[in-house]
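Hypothesis: this fold can be encoded by more than one sequence.
Test: take the structure tokens below, design a sequence, compare later.
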């Protein structure tokens, strides 16, 4: 029998804005707004790089920085324009809007319009064998038979998530001190992100963008 695709996905579940791995470890993802260093002076560039270096050196835990480039899904934008088109009363403005929609569609078909996003993955839980992550360790600490991750209680999850949130505060605070806007991904945004990660052929929407 062919193996299920889910067997190769390291995530057991996503809840409350946290990805729970099969190992029992937790992951939170922070979306970051990039800084255009080309618009900065040489002194400003040097200062930002040094500050970022100091930020990384001050961390007592590892983080993962991921840059993702995907083709932009313009369908929601086109649908919004078409909805507005029906409400336009002037003939000239209606014609111009229809031509603009056609231009956007043709441009997108001719060129690959890419969107780039930067993520910082914040972990909690030391590397362990499957089933022996931080959540399983918390269960075993109280004695008795060690429960599987599927049997974990909410209070145990909340205790581990509290530790993760402390790390998140350190990371977001350090990034924002550099002038980098941050946004922690919630459950729907995390699900969308991992779906796009494991299905790279799909178009990228803008649901997880900053400010939305």
């Amino acid at each position: 029998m062919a193996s299920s695709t889910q067997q190769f996905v390291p995530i057991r579940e996503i809840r409350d804005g946290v990805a729970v791995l099969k190992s029992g470890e937790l992951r939170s993802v922070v979306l970051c707004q990039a800084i255009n260093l080309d618009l900065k002076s040489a002194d400003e560039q040097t200062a930002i790089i040094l500050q970022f270096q100091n930020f990384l050196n001050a961390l007592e835990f590892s983080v993962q920085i991921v840059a993702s480039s995907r083709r932009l899904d313009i369908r929601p934008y086109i649908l919004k324009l078409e909805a507005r088109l029906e409400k336009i009363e002037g003939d000239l403005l209606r014609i111009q809007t229809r031509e603009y929609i056609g231009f956007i569609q043709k441009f997108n078909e001719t060129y690959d319009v890419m969107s780039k996003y930067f993520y910082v993955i914040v972990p909690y839980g030391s590397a362990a064998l499957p089933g022996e992550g931080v959540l399983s360790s918390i269960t075993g600490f109280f004695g008795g038979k060690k429960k599987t991750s599927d049997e974990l209680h909410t209070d145990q999850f909340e205790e581990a998530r509290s530790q993760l949130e402390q790390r998140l505060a350190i990371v977001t605070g350090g990034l924002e001190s550099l002038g980098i806007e941050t946004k922690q991904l919630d459950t729907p945004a995390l699900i969308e992100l991992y779906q796009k990660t494991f299905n790279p052929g799909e178009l990228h929407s803008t649901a997880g963008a900053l400010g939305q």
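The beta strands are 11-15, 18-21, 26-32, 64-71, 114-124, 182-184. The mean pLDDT is 79.
Hypothesis status: open.
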